[in-house]
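Exercise 7.
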Amino acid sequence: MRRKRQTKWWIVGIIIVILLGVGLSVGTNGGLTKKDKITLGTVGPDVQIWQHIANSKQAKEVGLKIKVKSFTDPVALNRATASGEVDVNAFQSWSYLQAYNKENKKAQLVALGTTYLEPMGLYSDRYKSIKDIPDGATVAIANNPANTARGLLLLQSAGLIKLKSNFGATSGINDISSNPKNLQFKEIDDTTGPRVLKSTDLVLIGNTIALTGHLNVLKDSIYHEKVSQSTKNNINVIVTAKKNRNNTEYRKLVKLYHNKQIQAWINQKYQKTKVNVDKPLNFLKH
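Solution. The predicted structure, written as tokens, is:
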């Protein structure tokens, strides 16, 4: 009988130890386990930005250990984030995130915060300002739907065209309602923008491509996007799986990105063309 009692208390003791262990492993991250390292996935030039952030004293000061994982396929990166292979990613615009979620109902992602806007610019080697553009000028525009729509919205913002009221994220040239200067459109591959400047009146170029052609959108374009409700869809965001939306450790990444010293480094490296956007998520949702 005594041996049975001892066995019973021994089992109870093991259960208590296990429960204490579970309790200690749960942090203050909305009930989520606090990880030693946050795996952050990104693509292209942003790999360098996040490697700098990961190695910064600012990251150490807030207690964040970040492992940066480089991807070449954006869709694969979003899927890896949804599955938990990657904790957080930072590469996509608000509109890209919305489009992904629309197509992936069972692997939803959420934005944790905003990062930057890389302005698209309207460039010309022939004209110095919007008012100089003549009737019949040719505009080179990207041949993929997202950037076609973005370019047309920029031309509308510049007062050169008007778009139909139902114009959407993948609308095209056929959705122009008014073209008073009778602009002619020439579709090009995104990457060739800087190379066709000499042979075309006007060229719409995204900032990543502009930088490869040694163009600074803030100095060399005759007109460019600015942070506003009309460009909110193009603002980049930090993203995680929906189940992690309240993770306080992941949310620290947003504040870390906007740190003054981090921003000073980004501005110097990218000539201020990754325009810092420190806005609440409600700015994107309304």
